[in-house]
Amino acid sequence: MRHLIPSVRSILATGAALGALAATPAFAQDMAADTAADTGTEGEIVVTARRREESLIDVPISMSVVTGDSLVKSGAADITALQDKTPNLTLQIARGSNSTLIAFSRGVGQQDPLWGFEPGVALYIDDVYVARPQGAVLDIFDVERVEVLRGPQGTLYGRNTIGGAVKYVTRRLGNDYKASLRGSYGSYNQIDLVGQVVVPLGDSLSVGAAVAQYWRDGFGTNLTTGAEHYNKDVLAARVSAEFTPTDNIFVRVAGDRTLDRSNPRHGTRLLPNGADPIYAPTNSVYDTRAGIGDDNRVETRGLSITGEIGLSDMLTFKTITAWRDGSTDTVIDFDNTVLPTLDVPAAYSDRQFTQELQLLYEGDRVQGVFGVYYLNGRASGAFDTVVGLLNTTTLTAGEVFTKSYAAFGDFSFDLTEQFKVSAGLRYTRDEKTGSVFRRNYTGIRSPYFGNATAVPGLIRSDYTNSRDFEKLTPRVSLSYQPNADLNIYASYGKGFKSGGFDMRGDAILTPTTVNGYEPETIDSYELGMKGAFLDRTLFVNLAGFYSDYKDQQVTIQVPSLPSGIASFVDNAGKGVIYGFELETRMVPSRHFQASVVVGYTNADYKEFLTFIGGGTTPVDVSDQRAFQNTPEWTANASFTWSNDVAGGVLAFTPAVSLRSDTQMFEIATPALDQDGYALVDASLNWTSGSGRYRIGVAARNLTDARYRVGGYNFPGALTGNSVIGYYGPPRTVTGTFEVKF
User: Fold this and answer.
1) Pick from 730, 706, 716, 727: which is nearest to 288 by CA?
2) Which residue spans adopt a coiled-coil conformation according to this UniProt entry (predicted)?
3) What is the mean pLDDT of residues 712-724?
């Protein structure tokens, strides 16, 4: 199924045909209407994309909003399900991981989750920036909505939002007693147990807690050890307290902890290596023959304090103080055999402290926010690269300390009743100190990972260096709103992702690695429209964009024996990205709604400078490179039929999502690159008239499609011809019962 362009056209044609009956508001326009549709009402969608509460139609930003309830009802396992509902977005579990997030939006993101590298699409949990992707594959519980902001958000969200931002917004407690229990059982002995409670302690104080336990057998088996492969064992909890002593003061303290003890994902071999059967691909893409073991543990924790003080009718002061940390102990078997041909035991840790102060102004004709931001973070780690056929190991270890300072302002001015202009500016300064140590050993594993008899060899990197990076990132937009239900806007924004140090850098192979790499920037132009039509039964969001991408940071990894894997980071050069997003939704009655979402991205390198064959002069190979994790087309279509049944509402929702061909790396890798594919889902939910009970059945990937979401490419005899693929989930069916008290 190449390119899927005919399929996308079919979806569009179907959407046009449905238009006579229904067509839909963008998921951007409202998945909050998912709940509203059940009751036949259409509520105003309120978002906080510009750090203040606004109607979605009023915000001159291309964005999507998906409610937690709609994700739960569709059987979504975690926030990676957003890529099936949101245009031009890639959210996936990183290769060799269970809970590390890979995010791309409009061709911009971060494929390499190693410590020290910065994400290109920022993740926020209740306005707290999550600096590291480990543990960032968030499960769906205690979440009110997820906002997906596309394009650079450098003014309000600062560092490393060059591709966009994903905001995970949890529910506020309120001052009423609430409790709920949700239990699910599904394919592969899936068991989900989620409990939530809110207890008011007087008129001004409420406390709440949410606990979730997820178990699931593996989609496959480790044929060497007999362990489950692609299983799930996650315990997550969130506690919070809200204090509202007066109408003008609000304080929230929240803590969360997630422990993932799922077995490591080793992937599966895609190519054989000679006649030895241990190197042959397995019959199931979910099986593995990995021999490195099944130990894996990922823990993340966080604590935040948010305070809001109303200084006057127009001024509000807000403070957000947060601390987060995480640790990972894992193993990755690159060769997928019982032998240590290419094995990588690894350990990562990170911590961060952030403080943000905001002053929000809400006047009759002027609205906006001014703020300052501070981040103090440390990311560290170590891993062995074991090349068993040579009896050698390369230890790579290091850490990066980051201090980031920023000041920002963003204001909207009502020039007339119809014309509004919005402008913002952010100054960011990052101070980074990186340390990298890389050494060869004779033996299988280094002393760091338990082999005390390993013989030390050549030190390949041992340096500490510091660099500072700073940037001004402006944003400006002009909106024309002839009425409350239509907004036509044009905007410009600059994005900035900080430079840094390559934690895999080999100072012998690439001596300049000690100098680090430069920041990358993007200039993005957008023209869009958001509207509600036909008496607010038809919603349409349309945005076209053009981006000029400069100095993109690209990680290149190649076998370099006997030193293991050589890595270097290129500031690749220049790229041009353009495309559009169309999100539509129609709700002609309380019994029917439909949605069509289409995204198109054309990403093309205009310059890609790199070193070829040991040369000392960079060569432009832009005609041989392509953007990774960026399908040209993404699309989703769904409808919901509902009716009154047995004193409640029964809703049936089938959906299909499509993604065209995807290249895993900048260099084409036919054995790994994923052809276009389609996923078909369906859900059936009955909710009692009081809303107290819900019974649901959700089926995902009904056609049992096999599709790769990541891979490693280390061909060659000494590395075991290790071309390894990682796959999305097979067909699953889950039944759920939920009760609210």
Assistant:
1) 727
2) none
3) 90
